[in-house]
Specification:
Length: about 220
């Protein structure tokens, strides 16, 4: 391995998108998110809902992973997972998180911070049974984030459940469900030429959202 094998300082890209100003963004961050999300869905519909979810345990040790946004409204942004996963344990200890959307082709990203709460068991059950049968079986068979001896052992669990519930509705596991992040802060980032990016922060107060331009 050469001395510079891990040196990427020579890599460059230029941002060429049109900028954003205080006059062109919406005073409501949910409306601004919807506008950008709709554009992302037009450009890359198969990946627009991918988001990084960052959590931390009670010691403040962080962890991050990609999850999929499943629905959002004025109450917050929702995804589904196994409550016994690492993210589930983190959120049990520290119900604060951040989600990040990055849309490469649009040179845009949105950060959203806030408190996280569980969705109801009824909402989890409703969404669980909208999923493809294979996804239902995988969720029922896999104790997410827990060690397992081999992939074969995991596939055997799936096959056993497939036989057990042949022709029947697969019950939603009690350890599986949804979360909602209730926003307290948004940041909208638009890449600009020479790294002079546009950044706007929305902070929630007792009565409204305060908007500030941030230096890049």
């Amino acid at each position: 391995m050469s001395e510079n094998a891990g040196d990427f300082t020579h890599l460059r890209r230029e941002y060429v998108s049109q900028g954003i100003t205080r006059d062109t963004i919406d005073a409501d961050p949910f409306k601004q998110f919807t506008e950008w999300f709709d554009v992302a869905c037009q450009v890359r519909p198969d990946d627009a809902s991918s988001m990084t979810l960052a959590t931390a345990d009670k010691q403040g040790k962080p962890s991050a992973r990609i999850v999929l946004l499943k629905h959002f409204d004025l109450n917050g942004f929702a995804w589904y997972t196994d409550y016994q996963s690492q993210k589930g344990h983190d959120l049990e200890e520290n119900p604060q998180a951040e989600i990040l959307f990055y849309w490469y082709g649009l040179e845009r990203q949105i950060r959203i911070q806030g408190r996280v709460e569980k969705l109801s068991a009824e909402q989890a059950d409703l969404y669980f049974h909208k999923r493809p049968v294979g996804s239902q079986l995988s969720a029922a068979a896999s104790e997410q984030s827990q060690p397992i001896a081999s992939r074969q052992a995991l596939e055997e669990r799936v096959n056993a459940l497939q036989v057990e519930y042949a022709g029947q509705e697969i019950p939603c596991p009690e350890r599986w469900g949804g979360y909602r992040l209730i926003p307290e802060k948004f940041e909208f980032w638009q890449g600009r030429e020479s790294r002079l990016h546009d950044r706007f922060n929305y902070n929630l107060t007792a009565t409204n959202w305060i908007i500030e331009r941030l230096q890049p």
